[in-house]
């Protein structure tokens, strides 16, 4: 029999690409607080502003929430979060802050 040693099998399995979570899993994968942070981030608020809106949580806590959101949604960069939100129908490209 041609058996693969356990060590090599582990290495081969660890090289498999991770499956990215899609916006279809958005509601299930993020906590309510993470969804709040994500929404405010998509609205263009800075971490300090997000913290103030969420009851005075620290900038570090907001940054931690954002890092967890990025990991859960498979985003490597900020722009990836926006792309995921647009593709999932969670937000659009319309500028809500623009005054006509």
Give a written overview of the molecule.
The chain is mainly α and 100 residues long. It has a domain of 67 residues: Orthogonal Bundle (Arc Repressor Mutant, subunit A), CATH 1.10.10.10. 56% of the residues lie in helices and 0% in strands. Helix 3 packs across helix 5 and helix 4 packs across helix 5. The radius of gyration is 18 Å and the shape is globular. The termini are far apart. About 10% of the residues have low confidence.
Topology of this protein?
Blueprint (H helix, E strand, L loop, with lengths): L5 H9 L11 H4 L2 H11 L4 H7 L5 H15 L4 H10 L13
Helix pairs in contact: 3-5, 4-5
Helix content: 55-70%
**Termini separation:** 74 Å
Instruction: Tell me the name of the CATH homologous superfamily of the domain at 21-87.
Output: Winged helix-like DNA-binding domain superfamily/Winged helix DNA-binding domain
Number of strands: 0
CATH topology title of the domain at 21-87: Arc Repressor Mutant, subunit A
Major β-sheet profile: none
Classify the secondary structure makeup into a structural class: mainly alpha
The CATH architecture designation of the domain at 21-87 is Orthogonal Bundle
> What is the overall pLDDT average?
78
What would CATH call the class of the domain at 21-87? Mainly Alpha
What gross morphology would you assign? globular
Report the portion of residues in β strands: under 5%
Low-confidence stretches: 14-23
The value of Rg in angstroms is 18 Å
Tally of individual helices: 6
In N-to-C order, the SSE pattern is: HHHHHH
């Amino acid at each position: 029999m041609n058996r693969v040693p356990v060590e090599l099998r582990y290495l081969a399995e660890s090289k498999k690409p991770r499956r990215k979570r899609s916006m279809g899993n958005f509601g299930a994968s993020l906590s309510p607080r993470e969804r709040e942070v994500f929404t405010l981030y998509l609205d263009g608020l800075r971490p300090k502003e997000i913290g103030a809106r969420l009851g005075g949580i620290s900038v570090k806590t907001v940054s931690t929430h954002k890092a967890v959101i990025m990991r859960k949604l498979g985003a490597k960069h900020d722009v990836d979060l926006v792309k995921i939100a647009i593709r999932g129908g969670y937000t659009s490209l319309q500028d809500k802050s623009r005054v006509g």
